[in-house]
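ARCHIVE CARD
Drawer: 12
Card no.: 0347
Subject: one protein chain, sequence and derived structure
Cross-reference: see card 0346
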Amino acid sequence: MQLLGASWPGGFSGVPVYSNSGSTGRCENSATTPSGTVVATGAEWQCVELVNRLYVANGWINSTWQGNGGRSKANARDSMFDEAPSNLRKQAQGSITHVSPGDVVSVNVMDGSTFEPDGHVLIISAVNGSSVTYVSQNAGSNTSSTVTTTGQLLGSSLTVKASGSWTYPVIGVVHAPVQSSGSTIAALYSANGPFAVKSNGAFSGGWTDEATGVQAIAVSDDTIGALYTSGLFAVKSNGAFSGGWTDEATGVRAIAI
């Protein structure tokens, strides 16, 4: 049963979220990369399957991302965070500088003081200041699925909202690849910049340093939007990607193009 379409909260373009609706059968799923490679995404409709399907569909990975949502034991290192593909950048809890839509968050699951094996994994759908919205699969109960939840980025640590006696200590975040559209690529290296762009498809070299103090970026065709930590929002829409910014507004908290 489909619980959410590909349009996720905050405007992020995700993939559909499903539920087994109480079924105990096990079926394996797969997805296809933009280049046509079929990749196994895991058992329907587990939390790790959603992550794999999103990342395969976007071409961010071309083989199955292994690991549990969280860790199988407190001292294990077998979560999706621990086993993230080498092409993806990750930051452990306590060292998180920024989060963006598409980022993957592995959590352990605690029922009071009891550690629940294998944990859970969520995908960030929206970021608004310090507030974070998550989407995940196979959360809640057989009779009441939980597709979205919230949390905060407080300093260098990320939270996921508790539910009764259940808490979700964050292991770390795996960042989605840089945003791109057509032949334009924008990379935000960390909170407060630096921010760089390139406008060719070679994907090696050719970067132009644009600005620092940037907290969020958005790309559409040859238009780039930059949201500075000061709240200033600026855009540019030429292919030179060296200067040419136009200040649009101040006091802005989030952007989309």
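Annotation on reverse: Residues 114 and 166 are 9 Å apart (CA to CA). The chain has two domains: 2-174, 179-249.
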